[in-house]
Amino acid sequence: ARYGVTSNCIAPLASTRMTDRGRAASGDESASAAGTPMDPRNVAPLLVWLASDEGGVANGRIFGVSGHRISLYEEPVRERFLYSEQPLWDIDKVFELWPKTIGLQDYPMPEIQGIQRQPQQ
């Protein structure tokens, strides 16, 4: 990177207070994830590596951290988009076009290995 600045994305899969609340609501009062593959501390080594001189080789990449696995994802592919011929985006236009174009409410969440999604209520 020209000025030593890089930008990467980390997609972690770990047990957190937020996910623990979901388990508690479903009746699963399982113990903390400390020391298990879902321990959020498994994400930190990747962060340290990315911030190191050696990690400077990674730029514009997507990394996944799940349990004891660190993954490098392929380049994302544009699936849907909004388009405007105006030189600047108009906020109202984004709200108008979103459901007709990207419309994420009609787009199913991707399946994640080992994760069972709960139906929305």
Describe the structure.
The protein contains 3 helices and 3 strands, in the order βααββα. By secondary structure, it is an alpha+beta fold. It has helices at 17-25, 44-51, 91-97, and strands spanning 9-13, 62-66, 69-73. It has a 3-stranded mixed β-sheet with strand order 1-2-3, with no helix packed on it. A hairpin with a 2-residue loop joins strand 2 (62-66) and strand 3 (69-73). It has 2 domains: 1-76, no CATH class; 78-110, no CATH class.
Helix-strand layout with pairing:
Blueprint: E1 9-13, H1 17-25, H2 44-51, E2 62-66, E3 69-73, H3 91-97
Parallel strand pairs: 1-2
Antiparallel strand pairs: 2-3
| Strand line-up of the largest beta sheet | 1-2-3
Mean pLDDT: 80
Q: Helix and strand succession?
A: EHHEEH
- Low-pLDDT runs of 5+ residues are none
What is the radius of gyration? 19 Å
Name the beta content range. 5-15%
What is the makeup of the main sheet? 3 strands, mixed
Q: Helical percent range?
A: 10-25%
Count of the domains: 2
Overall strand count: 3
Q: Treating each run of at least 4 consecutive H or I residues as one helix, how many helices?
A: 3
Distance between termini? 46 Å
Shape: extended
Q: Given the helix and strand composition, which structural class is it?
A: alpha+beta
Oligomer state of the chains in this structure: single chain
